[in-house]
Every structure is written in C-alpha cells, then in structure tokens.
Design goal:
Helix content is about 65%, strand content about 0%. It is an all-alpha fold and about 190 residues long.
C-alpha cells in the first residue's frame, strides 16, 4: 500500500464501518444458529492486498474499536486480529497469492485462527470461559458462513483499496507474460532463435 493520507483514511473508514455494521446489523442475522463475523475477513483482505504492517495495524484498530464498542476486555480482540493481519500479510510477501479464488481458503484460515485465538485468549483471561460441544459447533458454523461470504468481502475491500495499492496481486497475475520463445537451452543467452 502506498503510505498516504488517502490510504489511511480508506482503511480507517473500512474498519469503523465494518465494526459498526458487525455490532449493529450482523448480530441480528442468524444462519444455522450462528452469525458471520466480518472482522477476520476485513483484516485478512487488507493484509493480503496491502501487506503485513498495514494488516497488523488494521487488525489492531479493528480489535480495539470492537472492544470499545461492546465494552469487552480491552485488547483481547486486538491481540488476535493483529496476529492474523501480520500473518496473512507475511504470507502475501513470501508467496504469490494471485489466484482469483484465493479469498476462500484465506478467509477460512483467518476465521479459524480468529475463532481459536479468541477462545484461547478468552480462556486465559477467563472471559466467558465455557467449554462444551456448542462452542465447537459455533466455530464450525462461523467457519462455514465466513468461507461463503469471503469472496464478496475481499472483492469489496479490493475495490475500496485499489487506488492506494502499490501492487495489486490479482492484476500482477493477469499481466504476466507467457514463456519466451527462444532456442535450445544452450543458446538462450546468445540471442539465437530456432
């Protein structure tokens, strides 16, 4: 991501609007006894398109804003979302995630990491620490729902961040040239064709 005021404003507005939408509207949507959680998808999308540092900052801001809005233990969600943002951003920097279906497994992995990380932090801090099969069922439903909505969320985040991205991984993949048509292996450096 190009470090500009426009980029910071776009990410900040995305975080704020997503947290407000999550707290106000998504709490009323129940599918199969669970509800989708947009925050791990938002953080993963910002991290995959912008990099590890903007992803970690987005995760911290999203977690802090969520904790302040719902009055939960301050920093519990920030810790987990910061780690997710940094991890997904590092994946982008090390690998070439330029496939158009990349949001599906990435959204599933980020959601699973968020569910397990939130459960671990909540258990360590004894915040609503309940262990039962209902927790596993809720995690599975959350994972399925977030996997289903990953493509539209990633597409929306990409559309919002596109003007401020230094490199768009999907566009880079589309513009890649095919293999060059040269001669035999021994003559490639000499500029001699077949």
């Amino acid at each position: 991501m190009i470090l500009s005021p426009q980029g910071f404003i776009r990410v900040g507005l995305l975080v704020f609007l997503t947290v407000v939408f999550q707290v106000s509207a998504m709490e009323r949507i129940h599918v199969f006894g669970g509800q989708p959680d947009l925050l791990p998808l938002l953080v993963a999308a910002v991290a995959i398109y912008a990099g590890s540092v903007p992803g970690a900052v987005c995760g911290f801001l999203a977690g802090l804003t969520l904790d302040m809005m719902i009055g939960d233990s301050l920093g519990a969600a920030s810790l987990v979302l910061t780690a997710i943002g940094y991890g997904v951003g590092r994946y982008r920097e090390v690998r070439d995630p330029a496939h158009s279906l990349m949001p599906i497994p990435l959204g599933a992995a980020a959601t699973l990491a968020y569910a397990l990380g939130s459960a671990a932090v909540g258990f360590m801090l004894s915040i609503d620490a309940s262990v039962s099969f209902d927790v596993l069922r809720d995690m599975l439903v959350l994972l399925i729902l977030n996997t289903v909505i990953a493509l539209p969320v990633f597409g929306l985040v990409r559309r919002v961040l596109r003007p401020t991205l230094a490199v768009d991984p999907i566009e880079r993949r589309r513009r890649r040239r095919g293999p060059s048509q040269t001669g035999p292996i021994g003559l490639r450096g000499l500029g001699i064709g077949r």
